[in-house]
């Protein structure tokens, strides 16, 4: 009898120790192994309990009150805690299965805590038959005392729960909290969230403040951002003309999205000044500043040359060709002509021919041979290349004081893209016949052209035109073509001439 009582005490203890050791052993194992182990701990004790005529609640008269019932009560303890752990694992998998969710575990942690507390109380009351009324009452009093002492902290915790349930953002999203803080959420915890600002600072915001703030999620449903640029211009300028120039400037900004389409409006009209607003979208917040800066640059350039054209039109009929002023200004902006003297630049400008294109007109077609350099005075040229499926691929756009066609002019290679006006555009043409004598007599000018081709015209204002005008031949073939067209004058500066 004594040996039976000893086994009645030892067997439950061995069962509980073995179960705890197994749980610790699989703790670092993959999810499937842990879930399988827990499912085994749920299935086997439940089967044994039902086979003994009871359930995990240990109801019925078949559960002895003495040592003989310790074995069944140990099975009940194993079942409840294994079931609680398995349910918590499922909740954690559903609510916190990715890296972002693991940084914001408020909701899943609360649910898991509630599951464990409920299992603990059930074990005390139904399995071990211990009264829990006094424990619950004492816990309530302690909760009131702790709540009064930790009001602010608890406010942050419950605010975090509310924000977690509503889920207005996730880790990795860019958010704005009113007008105070904007940045990328890097962590969400029980008391606060942490935001990495654009200044590479980490701002810690209490959850109670987050819950009361106006939250704007910049990353959902898309990271696309709308922005506005306002310009104040003299009221004497024609609003239609100014809006036309601003539309051209927006077209020249590659980061300004075409969909939704940009818009130019008049936000205020006064006696002395007019305020214009340019609204457009960019792909992400990091592009706003860069795109605004580029837009201002293009606005300045488009206004400058549009004003020169307006002055030229006003002076038509004078003895001196008024358009020479615009051509000279354009030539002075092109780095290729820096080696020329002022007189030579003026002579080149006088021999340039003006051409006006309406929207949709072709300047040149892909595959066509050409011997002219084209300089844009105003408007926007769109460069497109055949995509192979009947459609055309947009390579880019160029505007005032930018040029295109120089490689075809220098080498005789056909154009590899179409160039068409996407607004009303004024261009100046410079033929190869005008340029040939200068290249033969000016080694520095020749070197400038060769270096421009050799570097692939890597200057910022030439990036688009390079893609449109460069032939498929390598740099060596291009330089050979230049020397072939212009003879010994194309020998690079510093090289010996025979």
Automatic annotation (TrEMBL):
Compartments in which it is found: Cell inner membrane; Membrane
InterPro entries: cNMP-bd_dom, cNMP-bd_dom_sf, LSM_dom_sf, MscS_archaea/bacteria_type, MscS_beta-dom_sf, MscS_channel_2nd, RmlC-like_jellyroll
Keywords: Cell inner membrane, Cell membrane, Ion channel, Ion transport, Membrane, Transmembrane, Transmembrane helix, Transport
Membrane topology listed for this record: Multi-pass membrane protein
Domain Cyclic nucleotide-binding: 336-456
Subunit composition and interactions: Homoheptamer.
PANTHER family: SMALL-CONDUCTANCE MECHANOSENSITIVE CHANNEL
Protein name from the UniProt record: Small-conductance mechanosensitive channel
